[in-house]
C-alpha cells in the first residue's frame, strides 16, 4: 500500500545534523524501518591517494541545492512508492574529521521494501546533481575537490 | 541588450576573483556564446570554461540554450557534495 502522506525534508544547514529529530519527523505510525546513510569527514584516507585531512570547507548554491534535493526526493518517491518519509540534509561550512556532513534517511513499513536502495539512490544522486562543493585542507595545502558527473538535459 | 546576473562558485569563483557579476548581453546570446565571451573578457576563466557546469535560473543549461533577460546564471565545477 502506498502512503497517502509522505513527510519530505530537505535543506542545507550550517548547524549540527540532528538525526533523532529528523528520524522523528519521517516516522509515521505505519513505519517499521528506516535506512540511514550519513557521511562524515575522513581524517585519514588510505584508499587510492593516501593522505590526511585537517578539515573540509563546504559551500553550496543554496537555493538551487535545496531545489535539487527536492528533486532527488521526488525521484525516490517515483521509484519506491512505498517509502513513507524522506530526509535529505547537507551541512556546509568548516567541518572537521569525524563530523557528519550529510544525511539521507528513508522510512518504510518494512525493511524488505527497497528502503536500503532508496537511501543509497539518494546519496548517489545528491553527489551527482546537488550544487555543493568542498575544499580539502591538508597539512600540505588546499585543494578543491571536483566531481566528475555532467548532468544531462532535464536533470 | 539583456541584463543578467552571474554567480560563481568554488574553483570558478577563485579564478574569477568575485562571487557575482552583472552583465549586459545581446538578446540572442547562447550559453556557448557566453562561455566564449567570458573566455575573452576574463582570461583567468578561459581554462575553466572547458569543464564548467552552467545553470539558468537554477536549472542545468547546455550550449545551445539562449540566455533570457534577467537570468540568474551560475557557473561552477562538477559538484562534490556529500
Question: What are the SSEs and their pairings?
Answer:
The complex is a heterodimer of chains A (155) and B (82).
Chain A: E1 8-13, H1 19-25, E2 33-40, E3 44-45, E4 51-52, E5 55-60, H2 62-79, E6 85-91, E7 93-95, E8 100-108, H3 115-129, E9 132-138, E10 141-145
Parallel strand pairs in A: 1-6
Antiparallel strand pairs in A: 2-8, 3-4, 5-7, 5-9, 6-8, 9-10
Chain B: E1 2-8, H1 10-16, E2 20-25, H2 31-41, E3 53-56, E4 59-61, E5 72-76
Structural notes for this entry:
The complex is a heterodimer of chains A (155) and B (82). Chain A has 155 residues and is of the alpha+beta class. Chain A has helices at residues 19-25, 62-79, 115-129; strands spanning 8-13, 33-40, 44-45, 51-52, 55-60, 85-91, 93-95, 100-108, 132-138, 141-145. Chain A has a single domain (8-145), classed as Aldehyde Oxidoreductase, domain 3 (Alpha-Beta Complex), CATH 3.90.1170.40. Chain A has 3 helices and 10 strands, in the order βαββββαβββαββ. In chain A, a hairpin with a 5-residue loop joins strand 3 and strand 4. The longest helix of chain A has 18 residues, at 62-79. Chain B is an alpha+beta fold. Chain B has a single domain (2-68), classed as Ubiquitin-like (UB roll) (Roll), CATH 3.10.20.30. Chain B has 2 helices and 5 strands. Chain B has helices at residues 10-16, 31-41, and strands at 2-8, 20-25, 53-56, 59-61, 72-76. Chain B starts with a strand and ends in a 6-residue tail after the last strand. Classes of the chains: A alpha+beta (155), B alpha+beta (82).
Amino acid at each position: 500500500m502506498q502512503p497517502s502522506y509522505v513527510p519530505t525534508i530537505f535543506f542545507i544547514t550550517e548547524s549540527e545534523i540532528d538525526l533523532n529529530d529528523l528520524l522523528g519527523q519521517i516516522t509515521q505510525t505505519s513505519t517499521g524501518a528506516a535506512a540511514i546513510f550519513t557521511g562524515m569527514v575522513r581524517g585519514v584516507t588510505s584508499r587510492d591517494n593516501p593522505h590526511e585531512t585537517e578539515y573540509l570547507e563546504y559551500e553550496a548554491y543554496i537555493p538551487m541545492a535545496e531545489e535539487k534535493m527536492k528533486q532527488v526526493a521526488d525521484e525516490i518517491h517515483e521509484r519506491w512508492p512505498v517509502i513513507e518519509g524522506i530526509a535529505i540534509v547537507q551541512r556546509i561550512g568548516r567541518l572537521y574529521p569525524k563530523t557528519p556532513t550529510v544525511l539521507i534517511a528513508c522510512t518504510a513499513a518494512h525493511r524488505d521494501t527497497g528502503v536500503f536502495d532508496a537511501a543509497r539512490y539518494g546519496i548517489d544522486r545528491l553527489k551527482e546533481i546537488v550544487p555543493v562543493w568542498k575544499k580539502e585542507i591538508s597539512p600540505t595545502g588546499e585543494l578543491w575537490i571536483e566531481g566528475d558527473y555532467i548532468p544531462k538535459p532535464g536533470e | 541588450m539583456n541584463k543578467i546576473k552571474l554567480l560563481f562558485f568554488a574553483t570558478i569563483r577563485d579564478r574569477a576573483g568575485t562571487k557575482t557579476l552583472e552583465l549586459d548581453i545581446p538578446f540572442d546570446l547562447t550559453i556557448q556564446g557566453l562561455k566564449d565571451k567570458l573566455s575573452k573578457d576574463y582570461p583567468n576563466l578561459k581554462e575553466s570554461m572547458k569543464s564548467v557546469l552552467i545553470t539558468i535560473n537554477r536549472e542545468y543549461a547546455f550550449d545551445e540554450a539562449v540566455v533570457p533577460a534577467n537570468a540568474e546564471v551560475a557557473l561552477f565545477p562538477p559538484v562534490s557534495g556529500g
